[in-house]
């Protein structure tokens, strides 16, 4: 193994048509900070962290972006990934997401999480995980 080579998770990047607007949505959802790098890039990161100290969400302008269809449908744009968010109060988290412009998916599969779509149409889940967040092993407060 090459001890000099370092590889660290830096970001999870989402394509979208309006990176600044999507960054504002996620910053509001998680109470994180937003940085607008230029007209084509924006990111949100945990408060009090230095760039790269904790992975960020990065938003990249793609004028041809098409939101995925979920659940999957043959021949439609498929999701390549989705983001899960641990929450202490599912109902309050859903309300916050709705107030920021998210939409609840018509199809749901559990009472323990809610599938939603961000303003650009990316699917994400708000997951009831109060015990995980409040455990001493959870790293980000």
As a whole number of angstroms, the C-alpha radius of gyration is: 16 Å
Query: Average pLDDT value?
Result: 90
Series of H and E elements: EHEEEEHEEEH
- What's the CATH H-level homologous superfamily of the largest domain? 2,3-Dihydroxybiphenyl 1,2-Dioxygenase, domain 1
Parts with pLDDT < 50 across at least 5 consecutive residues:
none
Share of β-strand residues? 25-35%
Strand order of the largest sheet: 1-4-3-2
Q: What share of the residues lie within helices?
A: 10-25%
CATH architecture of the largest domain: Roll
Oligomer: single chain
Number of DSSP helical runs: 3
* Top-tier CATH class of the largest domain: Alpha Beta
**CATH-defined topology of the largest domain:** 2,3-Dihydroxybiphenyl 1,2-Dioxygenase, domain 1
Number of strands: 8
Distance between the termini: 33 Å
Largest sheet, in brief, is: 4 strands, mixed
Number of domains: 2
State the main characteristics.
2,3-Dihydroxybiphenyl 1,2-Dioxygenase, domain 1; Signal recognition particle alu RNA binding heterodimer, srp9/1; four-stranded mixed beta sheet; 141 residues; alpha/beta; globular
